[in-house]
Amino acid sequence: MDVKIIECKPSDVEIAVLKKKYGEPIIRKMDRNDVNKVHLPDNTDYLNCIGEGVGIILNDKNQFVLVKKARKESWYFPSGRIMNGESIEAGTIREVHEETGLNIQLKSLSSIQIIDIHFANCILRLWHFNFIIKEYSGTMNIPDKSEIGDCRFFLEPPVANDEYDKHWIRTTLEDTSIKLNPEAPRL
Is 90 helix (H, G, I), strand (E, B) or coil? Predict the structure, then answer.
C-alpha cells in the first residue's frame, strides 16, 4: 500500500536564495510518529503552506524563548506556517511576532529540518526553517491568548514537555551550537 506524502516546502530557488544570504545551514531529516493514530484533515492549512518558520530568540545570557499553546502543556519555539505567496523570512517574522509580540530581525539560518509527520492517513513532510534571532524590540506579550498561553525565556528546556517537543527543542538547540548546562536534567 502506497502512503500519500504531502510535502510543504518552498521552491528550490527560494531555498538557494536563503542559503546565499545566510550561509549553508545544517540539513536534518526527522520523523515524528506521535500522531500516527490521528487523521490529517483534507481541508488543513498545511495544503496551502510552504513550510514553517521557527524563531530561536536568544538574549545576551544565552537564554531562549519558548511559547506554550493555550490548551497544551508542552513548550516549543515560536513558529508557524508560511503561506503560499509569502516569503520564508516574512512568514517567520510574522509568526514570531504573533506568538511573542516581539519585533525581530533574522540573524542566521541555523538549520533546515525536514520532518516527516506520520499521520494515520498520510505523511506530512514539513520543512522547518530555524532562524537565530539576537536582535529584537518591544515587550514580550501574547497578542492572541486564545492560541498562546505563555511565553518566556529559558536557560534550559522544560523537563515536563511532550516527548517529541523535548527531542525537537534539544535538536534545534544543538543545531545552533547553544551549550546547555551538562548538570541540567536531560530531556
Answer: helix
